Amino acid sequence: MDIRLDGISHSYDDFEVMRDISLHIESGQIVCIVGPSGCGKSTLLRFIGGLERPSKGRVYQLGEPPEGCLNPLTYIFQDFALLPWRSVAGNISLVLEDHGIRGARAKGIIDDVLARTKLSEFGNALPKQLSGGMKQRVAIARALAVNPAVMLMDEPLSALDAQTRELLMDDLVDLWVRQPFTAVYVTHNLAEAVRLGHKVVVLSRRPGQIREVVEIDKPLQERNFGDPELDAQQKHLWELMRDEARAADAELINV
Ligand SMILES: Nc1ncnc2c1ncn2[C@@H]1O[C@H](COP(=O)(O)OP(=O)(O)OP(=O)(O)O)[C@@H](O)[C@H]1O
């Protein structure tokens, strides 16, 4: 299933947040959205997820979700959002219980997503026993359990330290290479964007408008840490963003 955004504009009362955003999110691709603070990235994700409606424009879902999809648009948040009293497997089974899936069928799905996220050994652990990186892998496993058409990822790695972020990026690349998924991935971190994005959408400061869509052709599995080609892409993104970020920063200070 593809997603098409057509002329999305939005204001909260007189406060204009974004203007005329059109974008095609193709099935099997990771689309990263970057832009200065307050430019409307999370708001755009809420429009795609159907949690809120834009003042103007439309979000289209094109084609059918994958077979066995329980929830076409599934969020992954920065703060993991795990239930502390449920085990890792219990947190994943919760989203299946919501769809009446229990017993052997649920176990089959849980075993599969735990294996895909390298968590097979940790099904009985409680969230408090896990590191931040492991918790986020559980949240990713839980999202995969519903076989979503599109994962909506809002700063999924930003609560993690730098080394854990690197490891999780490797994990996300492995996961995608083994079985491509579709994601809209909001981040402040340009290194993440060039490592994971097939497309990187650069938004201007508020009201967020698309400044450029940078396509990165290099296959995900060939994008290594310190790759000069990626460094050049990252530099280009930063050049696009620097003035916008500075202006956005000044705007916040002068409110
Ligand atoms: N429900 C709301 N009512 C009023 N204003 C809102 C609401 N939600 C968001 N905003 C404002 O809209 C603007 C865009 O917010 P949003 O969270 O989408 O930006 P962002 O690009 O994700 O920011 P950040 O990078 O800092 O997370 C901000 O100025 C925010 O304060």
TrEMBL record:
Domain ABC transporter, residue spans: 3-230
GO molecular function (one): ATP hydrolysis activity
InterPro entries per the UniProt record, alphabetical: AAA+_ATPase, ABC_transporter-like_ATP-bd, ABC_transporter-like_CS, ABC_transporter_ATP-bind, P-loop_NTPase
The keyword Phosphoprotein is assigned to this record: no
Regions annotated as coiled coil: none
Domain of life: Bacteria
Annotated keywords: ATP-binding, Nucleotide-binding, Transport
Any one Pfam family match given in the protein's UniProt record, by short name: ABC_tran
SMART domains in the record: AAA (SM00382)
Family of this protein: Belongs to the ABC transporter superfamily.
Protein name, as recorded: ATP-binding cassette domain-containing protein
Organism: Thalassovita mangrovi
